[in-house]
Structures are given as structure tokens and as C-alpha cells.
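Q: Joint fold for the lines below.
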Amino acid sequence: MATLLEIQNLHTRFYTQGRVIKAVDGVSYGIDEGETLAVVGESGCGKSVTALSIMGLIPWPPGRITEGQVLYRGQDLLSMNAEQVRQIRGKEISMVFQEPMTSLNPVLTIERQLTETVESHVSLTKKAARQRAVEVLTQVGISDPERRLSQYPHQFSGGMRQRVMIAMALICNPNLILADEPTTALDVTIQAQILELMKELSKQYGAAMILITHNLGIVARYADRVNVMYAGRIIERSTAREIYGNPKHPYTLGLLNSVPRLDETVKKKLVPIEGQPPDLGADTPGCRFLPRCRLGDPQTCGGEFPPLIEVSPGHWSACFKFDQVGKVAS
Amino acid sequence: MTEALTQTAPSNGQPLLEVKNLRMYFPVTQGIVLQRRVGEVKAVDDISFSINQGETLGLVGESGCGKTTTGRCILQLTRPTAGQILFDGEDITKYNNEQLREVRKKIQVIFQDPYSSLNPRMTIGQIIGEGPHVHKITTSKQETESRVKELLALTGLPTDLHSRYPHELSGGQRQRVGIARALSMNPSFIVCDEAVSALDVSIQAQVINLLEELQEKFGLTYLFIAHDLSVVRHISDRVAVMYLGHIAELAASRTLYELPLHPYTQALLSAVPIPDPVVEAEREHVILGGEVPSPLNPPPGCVFHPRCPIATDICRSEVPVFEEKRQGHWVACHHALSERNLAAIEGGKGQAQ
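A: Joint structure:
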């Protein structure tokens, strides 16, 4: 399938208190039409900042995209002017945010918030816009949408608000949905409802989805391909089955070993990754994961950052010692 | 300690803590000056369980199910509406403040949010040393300081942290400070209220391992409250599942995960994705419709019936009794052992393996 969006060598930095935080440090990835791609990593690894950079939502000050391109169907979003970006953002690329409690405007009705998007992108009459709003609300499983339209966000539960967010993302028939931790704030049974809904609707709309999450279980259930991020870089990329079955980066392996599994039959001791994630403001040479790595040694890994290389067809890893991952008893 | 680890039903064995028919109703009032009572939120409605010495009981459920309120009642941070909480055989709900102060040395808590549960104006040393100082466990400044250093080392923190402030620490380090504070009183029982939920997975594993090591070392007993079923399964000997103020099911953790008798437990387990795409592709996903009803106006009969796939007429009218359906396996469901339910469990298992 054709590539829908291509991020090339993206660098996003934050300038705070005299320091430069390299939140995204040379990220490249592409997503095909209709595909579900997961970006997984822990807090501060740059997965959300990447999404905000795609959308042109990095606030200046303190943040700035210093390098790189975001090609949407061949056009660079980063070199467009505000008006051109507005044509695409919200219409062709839409976003579902994490916090359903804070990402809806509390003083506007659901109708106003939903129709605002359609009215500004597609020239629809007020009536037609309202009709479209009712239609998407029905699709996301909100009963009695006519009445619900005139209500305010506080009258909705967390799960319902997230459904409204999804409705808002879908209302203009997007080609790409960026879902930034869409279910993190929700309970598990509601989380399952929302994710099933997103999967079904993205299929129905033929939209591609970038699913940003820290939950390895969600990735396993819903993603086709996976990018693992650590400290502002992608350190491993492959299909979900490869990543989970045959990880080629010690960080990925560490993550998989540190989550308790629901289906564990014998109680195994968890193997955590020791230490803390690195300070993104520090300018340390070499692999960022080295201080926490069981395999690394300063001679091989301390010089330059390991490049992301293809270790087997379709499987990329940024580790000099990828061939030893999982083989050494740890 | 070893014999205490054997899993027993709520009624037998030598429990350290027993909760009997606990109810916690919060009044809902209207009006500012003359506050009329217009209803009550039944946060916890008639629950009973016990925790044995050295055991970890997991308490899981979704937000609003009453798991945190249960923890707060045990800590006597809220006085329950009715019921008994027996700690070492004595009913602590009858205690006066003086007696409570004594018993609180033995019952400690680790809170969820490592950012808001530490006083930002106190140093780490003051935070950890406050308890021992107030309770006169340590008598001099030097003694308190050495106790603090001992606790820091015990929880895997560098000892020079004692003069730092919470904002200088990472989330994982703060949670360790919370654990050190709980341990400072030499407690026998700790309520861990979502103690690892706010942490990233790699850090979460560190803290879970620490809690397990400390339990082994000091023979601690935990009530582990969490919403993450995978974590609860990992750490607990027995697990209680709560729904809308009631305990739906209580069993040894292995039994509960392999043979869940309550339809809610089944749905809850099915909703949790397993981090393995091969397993996930073959699992059957039971997606529960609807949402948790308001505890202000819970449904009659079984509180789960509006969302239950096997509910019948009796579920709409009669509250199911929480009883031991199998050895050590307590369930509150009219149809727990019905053929249909057992077939559903078998079917689900076949899919899962």
C-alpha cells in the first residue's frame, strides 16, 4: 500500500531554564494507508511529542521543531503556512487525546464542539452539520444523540467523553487518526469497548491509525506494526509478532520482562530494568540505554549512538549487540 | 510465616485482619445552611473478608467500586457506617483516638500518587523520620537520622537523599520514599492503595519486587488495592473482585484467573489484553456493554444484572448471597455453578490456550 505519512529525521527540542531538552531526537517512520501502527514507550520517551509535532501543535516558546520533515502524501507539513496546515489538520489528520476530562471545552455544548470542525472544513449548512454530528454520535455508540448534542461535557461519563472525542476525530472522514493514549484514563472494561470501537471504525472509514501507548497488551491486541521508542529515538521496529516473539533490542526485552502477565501459570519474579530513564537535556555520547543495559559495554556502545539498522527483513534495531539479545542469561 | 502463606477461606485459618459486614454510606445533602439528606452513596455495601498473617490479598475493581473506601475504612480514615474490622481479634471501629494512635503503628498505608502524597516542604529525612519521632520509637535526633538512613538503604535509595526535597526525586524514587515511610513504624499490615499504578512499567517492576522482598523479610501482610489485574495476579495470594460496593468473587489468585465463576470477573479478565500478539489473536474477547451504574441509585437485585450476559429474572429481584461455592472460592452470583456459566468458562479457556 502507498505511504500515507512519512516522518523523516524529526528533531523537536524544548528550550527551558537555559537547557535544551531533546524530546524527539531524529525520529523517522512511515505509515501506510489503512494501517494501524503502534508507538510504544514509557513516559518522556517522546512518543506524544512526535504526534504533536506531526499536528503542528508544539508551542513556541518553549518548543521548536529544529530539523526534519513530515510528508503527508508527499507534501511537507512543516514547511506549510498556518492556513495550509489548517486545511489538513482536523480534516485529513485528526487526533484523539488522552484526557477526555480536559480535552473537551467545558463551556461549549457537544453540538458546538462537534459541528465546529465540519463547519470550518466542509462547507455544510448548520442543519447538515447537525445531522452529521448525530450520525457520528450514533456510530460511536452514544444513545439518544439528538438530546445528547445539547448537553455539556460534565454531563458525560469518562468513557462517553472519550466516545465524543472519537466522534470529533471521525466527523470529517480523516485519512489518519493519531490516538495518543486514548484509553489510559479509562477502566478496563470501558477501555476494551473504546478500542474495539476505534478498530472497527478505522476499518470502516479506511483510516490509518497511529496508536500511541505505554500498554504492551494493547499493542499486542491491536497493532500491525510497532515502533519502540526510548529517550527520543526509535530503538526497534517490526511487526507486532516479531517484536514480542523475537525482540532484538535489550530495552524491548526488558520491557517485556517487566510486565506481569495475566496468563502466567507459574509465578515468575519480574525482571525490571534497573535505574532511571536518562535526562534528555544531558549531552551524553553513545547509546542512551547503556547505563541500564545488561549487554552493553562502554567500548562498543559508548562512542556513538547505534543507528537503526535492518537486522532481518522488516525488523530494525538500534543496538550494536542485537545478535546477543535474549541469548545471554540475564 | 510459612504456614500463614497457605491459602484459606475467609472463615477459617488465623486471620490478622477480618472485615465483617462492612458498610460505608456517604450522605448526599442538598441546601447550604439546612442540609437535607436526600440520599446516600453506598460506596461499600456489606462486604466481608479476612486476610491471614503474611498473606497478600488483592482487591480489584474499576473506579468507583469501593476498593479505596474499603482501604480507608480499614485505616480508620473514614469511620464506617456499620460493620466490624477486627485487627488481631480486636474491633478497631470501636477504638477511641488514643487507641487508634497505638494501632496505627501496626497498620500503615502506601498511597497511589507519589507526587501528592509527600509534603513538598519537608525533606525526605523529615518525611520518613516523622513517624518514629512522634511515636517515640526513636528518642534522639541521631537515632532518628540513623533509622532514616537504614530505611533508605532498605528501600534501595541512596542514603544521602535524606536532606533532599520530594521535587528533586523521580516518580519511582518517591514511591520508594512512601514505602520507607510506611515501614518506619515496623508495621505488620500495609494497605497498598494503587501503589504502583502511577509508575512506568520498568519502574513498576522494580517497586513490585521491592514490596515482595520486604514482605519476605519482615513477614508483612498486604492488602493490595489496584485496578491492574495482571499486577494483582502477580503479587496476590488471594484476590477479591469488587463491583459497585459488593465483593463479586473471592478466591485464590490462580483459581480466580483460571476458573472465574462470576460473569463480571470473566468479562474483566477478558478485557485485559495480554502482551503477546500470538495469544491475543486466539483469545475470545467478551466486551461488556454499558457502564457501571451510579452507586447513588444501584440496580435492584444483583447489582451486575444490567450488564450481565447470563442474567435471569431472579437476578433482577434478589440480591445474590456471597457464599462459598467451592472450597475457598466465594462468589455472589445466582448462576455461578449453572451449566451455562460453566460451559462459558470452559469455552473461554479453550480459546485462551
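Q: Anything notable?
A: Residues 3-106+187-352 of chain B form a domain with the Rossmann fold fold (CATH 3.40.50.300). Confidence is low (pLDDT under 50) at residues 1-12 of chain B.
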